[in-house]
Structures are given as structure tokens and as C-alpha cells.
Amino acid sequence: MASKLRGIKLKSRKTTEGMASVKMPAPKTVTIPMSMHIGKPVTPIVKVGSEVKVGTLIAEDTNNLSAPIYSSVSGKVTKLTDLTTSNGSVVQMVVIESDGEMTVDENIRKPEINSKEDLITAIKNSGMVGLGGAGFPTYAKFTSDKPVETLIINGAECEPYITSDTATMVEKSDDIKIAIESIVKYFNVKEVILGIEKGSDEAQKKMEEIAASVSGMTVKVLPSLYPQGGEKVLIYHTTGKVVPNGALPIDVGCVVINCSTMAGIGNFIKTGMPLVERCITVDGASVKEPKIVVAPVGTPLKDVFDFCGGFKEEPFSVLYGGPMMGVAVPDLSAPVLKQTNAVLALTEKETTVPKETNCIRCGTCVTNCPFGITAPAITKAYKNKDAEAAIKAGAELCMLCGCCSYNCPANRPLVQTNKLAKELVREYKAKEANK
User: Fold this and answer.
1) How far apart are CA 202 and CA 199, in angstroms?
2) Could you give the 3-state DSSP secondary structure of residue 163?
3) CB under 8 Å to 433, separation ≥6 — which residues?
4) pLDDT tens by residue, 170-194
5) β-pair partners for 31
6) Which one, of 427, 327, 410, lies nearest residue 375 by Cα?
7) Closest CA to 338 of 275, 259, 273
8) Which of 147, 208, 258, 305 could form a disulfide with 132 if both were Cys (CB 3.0 to 4.6 A apart)?
9) CA–CA gap between residue 175 and residue 156 (Å, rounded)
10) Are strands 317-320 and 217-222 parallel, antiparallel or unpaired?
11) Angle, nearest 10°, between helix axes 116-125 and 259-271?
12) What is the pLDDT of residues 265-319, one digit of tens each?
């Protein structure tokens, strides 16, 4: 068995590395979508004219794999309307006009936790989702009947530009510790591993201080290799366990949680304040003053960029997340989401892709893929609309990290095609299940 999975070396471009986070003032309005998780959208419980405060519940969790949503500012609901998201879907949104006071809801109080069930309820009520970008409701990771043998905390911030998780480990280490201790206590976890990339010295020191006081916890320093933070990659590199295709981490006794998610859980346990703000990296060659910004959920990206001095030049592309797995933003009215860990404003030079040419069958995509997937086989299956062939080629295993496209000498859109192939497989399996 290989000592490590394959990956690629990337230029870090982390110009905000070592910076302290800066809290921005309340925006004039926030636009809060009712879908910031992988499950079905939730339904607003507020109406136009409703008065809200920071932490006021505005949408209840009534669906499987969804999460409650809270107001991130104090003020008045001015609109309930639809929003076209960056992936093209249309979801309902709540628009709140801020009064600038950021008054906290008087019902906010820390939860009473005396059992595993209480802790799951608390995590659910916090509105917490995967803050590394996935948006998976965190409480759902703890609802399996299978025991949690190893808690793995993801501090491997492997994408270029992004530093917000590292800043969180430095600034919110006490909250991370609270979350670790609660999960260890109520789930009887024997092993805790925090995976962090080499070079994050201050964050590593903070996490090692926690490990010194938590029984069974270790900090594992990992090579700076992309995609080190991929869930299955991280599990393998920290435990040596392989998560089979189609299986979940809990099937091998593991639960993986992003370090910022852990900080949010700890803060909710300590104060009762749900997820209403995000620590995000604001960077890219178009940005005048790159910063690590703490912004209310729902803040328009324009306000975030203005807080960072605006643009040196008009950006060619704006992304949620990093350049490898990020999603293009349609316009600057798009809001900060729960799962937003970065917003990048990139110049044309940073984003220009050379012209696509014919595949030369060199195998570079295979040798750079962490799982050794043959991307051209998936491309062929997708073009033939052959879902079974796509499954056989490993489309379901692909985590869309982009290593294949990044190193392809022919500049083929491999990761984009893989994503389409995964959708083809999902549709095929849904049809088969309904037969």
C-alpha cells in the first residue's frame, strides 16, 4: 500500500497568511438563502415586516439533511423572494435591512448538554454545516448507529489563497477545544487526530497545546500537497484506512470535521450563538487590500470587497472558494454563505486557460489523481451517455479536486466532464431505483 495518495504541488499564493482576522461592520442589508446545506431548502418562518435580531431563528430545519437558519443582523425583514444561486438553481431568500445595532436575540442561551443526544441536538440547533465548503449538516455525521472510533479534524488548508481555517485555529483554539472535549466525552471517542499541513507553524502550536490536554489526541503534520484536505485523502494520510467507493467515513469508524466547523460548535456550546457569521479569505490580484474578514452570513460580496478597499482593476472572475474547487459567482450581489471560506477576485491573467487540444493519451491525469481514476474513460462514457461505463471508470469516486485538469498538457476540461458524468450516474441510479 502506498504511504501517501498522489496529488500535486501548487503555488500557495497565500498573501493573507499570518494576518489576524478583521470583523467588518454590519452591512445595510443581508440576503440569506434558504439553502446553504446539501439537503432540501428550509422554509422561512418570518414575514415581510418581521423584526429580527442577531441569532433570531428565521427558517426551521424540517427536512432530512438540512439545517436551521438564523438572522445574522438585527433589523427588519423587507423581502421574501427568489435567488438564482451560483450553480443555477433558484432558492427562496430572506432579505433583512440592518438597523446597524447588531442587537443579540434575548433568547440566545447556551445549551444544556448531559448526553450524546443532547449534543447532537445542540449541533443541529447551531445551524452548523461543513465550513470547508461542502455544506453537509454536521449533526448528521453523528446520527449513525456505528461507533465513532476516530475523530479527524481537518486543518489541511490545501487550496491556494485560502487562510481562513488557519486563522481560526490560531484565534479560536479555545472553542475548538470545547468541541473536541464534548465530542470525546459523549461519543466515547478514543482517538482524535488533527491533520494540518506543514508550514502552519502558529496554528500547529495552538493545536498541539490542545492535544497536550486532551487524552488520545495527536496533531499530524502533513506534506503541503493538494488535495490534502479531501476527506478520503485525509483519512488515509492520518489513519491509513481506506474508505471504499460508495461508503462513508463512519463505515471505517471515522468522522471528519473541518476545524472552523469545530470552532463554531464550541462557540455554540459556550454561548448559544448559532452560525451567523463566517471567517473568509478575501484575496486575488484584483483586490486592493487582501484580508481575512469576519462577515455576517448574507453580506453582499460587493460590501466585502469594498471593506477590502475595492478593486485595483475590474476582476475577470469572482469565485466562492479556491481556484481549484471554487464556484464562479454571477455578480457581486451574491451573498456570503454559511459554507463560504473564501471569495477571490481574479484577473484575466490568473484565470486564462490555454486553448484545448486533442488528448495525447499521456496518462498525466491518471498519475496525478489521488485515486488513480482514468479521466478519459469517464469522458468517453459521458459522451456516449453510458452511465454504467462511467461507474466502471470511477466517476462516483471522483471528488472533483481538479488535479487531472490542472496538469493536462492538452488542457482538456476533465474535471468539468467528470462532474457532468457524476450527474449522469445519479440520474441513472434514480431511474433504476424507481423501476
Assistant:
1) 9
2) coil
3) none
4) 999 999 999 999 999 999 999 999 9
5) 95
6) 410
7) 275
8) 258
9) 18
10) unpaired
11) 100
12) 999 999 999 999 999 999 999 999 999 999 999 999 999 999 999 999 999 999 9
